[in-house]
Amino acid sequence: MIRYKEPVSGLIQCALGEFPSLSVKVMLVAGMADQEGAWGQTWWPDASGELHPDWEAGIDALIQIDGGAPYYAIPDILAHELAHAVAGPDGGHGDVFADAYLRIHKAFCRAAGQEPTPEQLAELHELIDCARTGRPFGTEPASDLVGELNTAIDFAINHPDGDAGGIAFLRQWTFGDQEAISAIENRGVRNA
Ligand SMILES: [Zn+2]
């Protein structure tokens, strides 16, 4: 016999345990990450009722996962897309999505005989925030000031008078504060 222990079917069972009425089709596709920048996508009929070509009768949502995703990442990608399926086409990454995503992951942990640790929960909350804000996982959330700095840097980089104009703009924006100018220059202008 061959007993192949793999996490994906376990995650599916956990999701069904939490949301027994889920009815979705999950398929692997090629090239989605390259073409659309997403490892997973969830589809519903559009407003006119038009269906995705891979739609099947009886499903409420169609999930596509890029088959090039690292195998170890697929349970999380699937949990994310199943949470979209629970939240529905208008749910985005809102509270219903977040609740479903956390419930599926917690059930997955418990099925493996572990209570989710505070570190695991913090990571899941960070992943939700990344989905909401578009920031890459593991980077700091942008404060308002950092957001403003980045806007200023973008403007300076694209300054019509080139680098000199950009630096002059930064100098003006920071009221001539040399420390701030150096910080900004080192942040982005040099790497432009
Ligand atoms: Zn998402």
Percent of residues in helices: 40-55%
What number of domains?
2
Task: Tell me the overall shape.
Answer: elongated
Distance between the termini: 57 Å
Residue fraction in strands? 5-15%
Structural class: mainly alpha
**Quantity of strands, as a count:** 3
Give the SSE map.
Blueprint: H1 7-18, E1 24-29, H2 32-36, E2 40-43, E3 61-66, H3 74-87, H4 95-111, H5 118-133, H6 144-157, H7 162-173, H8 178-187
Parallel strand pairs: 1-3
Antiparallel strand pairs: 2-3
Provide a compact summary of the structure.
The protein is built from 8 helices and 3 strands. By secondary structure, the chain is mostly helical.
Characterise this structure.
There is one protein chain. This protein is mostly helical and 192 residues long. It folds into two domains: 127 residues, 2-Layer Sandwich (Zincin-like); 48 residues, no CATH class. It has eight helices and three strands, in the order H-E-H-E-E-H-H-H-H-H-H. Strands 1-3-2 form a three-stranded mixed β-sheet, with helices on one face. Helix 4 packs antiparallel against helix 5. The radius of gyration is 22 Å and the shape is elongated. 22% of the residues are buried. The mean pLDDT is 86. It binds zinc ion. Zinc ion (ZN) binds next to helix 3.
Question: Which descriptors apply to this entry?
Answer:
about 190 residues, mainly alpha, Zincin-like, three-stranded mixed sheet, 8 helices, about 10% strand, elongated, binds zinc ion
